[in-house]
Structures are given as structure tokens and as C-alpha cells.
């Protein structure tokens, strides 16, 4: 008897479910020339998902491109920090090599310093560092820093007359502009 009650209860539940599902299913299938509202809704969701996927792909491609450019720039200018730290050393070598000495010992010491200076210059040139030519060139605010402007006869305006401190470039980037005196 318990089995019969269970079977009757299952049959009643099945019939209630079938009565509820069948009209809904029939309405959905017969609307809009055989296409259901649910199908249209899922197509809209699919289109939205495809659009989001395309945007994500574009964002990812842009991210990869930016990352690649950053890595290339880091590789290209990897020596900039050390070069910047060495510039005061180069300046001090320049000043030391400009001194005039009379004693033989001082001359040999100066020659040794000059050899070390040349080795240092060659080492930074291998990394892509170049000195900025200034004297006799036209003033360029990207390459030169004017600290004095003077009137000089027989010289055009805007020409660098004297260089107080050398400027340096690393590949195409100016590390330090030249400090110069410019004609007016």
C-alpha cells in the first residue's frame, strides 16, 4: 500500500509538472515564426559575450605590445643609471687633465690619469654614450643649457661660444645637456 501511495504521488507530481511545462514550451516554440524568445535572448547574450571576448583580446594585444616596448626600452637604456653616476667622475677627470704641471713625477701621474680617462670613455662609448658637440654649433635647447649669453663681434646670434660642462647622450636620449655660453 505504501508503494501504491508513492506511485500515485509520483504520478500526480509528474502530471502537475507536465501541465506546467507543456503550455510554456508550446508558447515559446510558436512565437515569432518558429523562433522562441529564449533563442533570441540567448543569441543576444552570445553576441554580447563575443563582443566582450573581442574587447578582451584587443586589450590583451595592447598589453603585450606595451610590455614588449617597455622591455625593449629597458634593454636599450639599461646603462643609463650607471652612466649618470659616472658623469661626475668624467668631469673630475676633465678638470684634472687640464691642469698644468712642471715636475716630471706629476707629468707621469697625469699621463696615467689620461690613460684611465680614455679607457673610461671607450667603455661608455661601447654602451652607446656619445659626447654632445657644442662649441661652434648652433644653440639647441634640447642638447644645450645656456648659462650665459654674451655679445660677440664677428659671430652670429645663437652660436655656442664656450662649453662649461660636457653633455652626453645615450643612444637617442640626452642624459645631460651641455652647459654653454651663447652669443647674442
From TrEMBL:
Entries under CDD domains matching the protein: GrpE (cd00446)
Intracellular or extracellular location(s): Cytoplasm
GO molecular function, one term: protein homodimerization activity
A cellular component term, taken from the record's GO annotations: cytoplasm
Single biological process term from Gene Ontology: protein folding
Coiled coil: 39-66
Record keywords, A-Z: Chaperone, Coiled coil, Cytoplasm, Stress response
Source organism, top-level taxon: Bacteria
Coarse class of the protein's main subcellular location: cytoplasm
Transmembrane intervals: none
Task of the protein: Participates actively in the response to hyperosmotic and heat shock by preventing the aggregation of stress-denatured proteins, in association with DnaK and GrpE. It is the nucleotide exchange factor for DnaK and may function as a thermosensor. Unfolded proteins bind initially to DnaJ; upon interaction with the DnaJ-bound protein, DnaK hydrolyzes its bound ATP, resulting in the formation of a stable complex. GrpE releases ADP from DnaK; ATP binding to DnaK triggers the release of the substrate protein, thus completing the reaction cycle.
HAMAP family: GrpE (MF_01151)
PANTHER family assigned to the protein according to its UniProt record, in alphabetical order: GRPE PROTEIN, GRPE PROTEIN HOMOLOG, MITOCHONDRIAL
Subunit: Homodimer.
NCBIfam families associated with the record: PRK14140.1 (NF010738)
Family assignment from sequence similarity: Belongs to the GrpE family.
Protein name stated in the entry: Protein GrpE
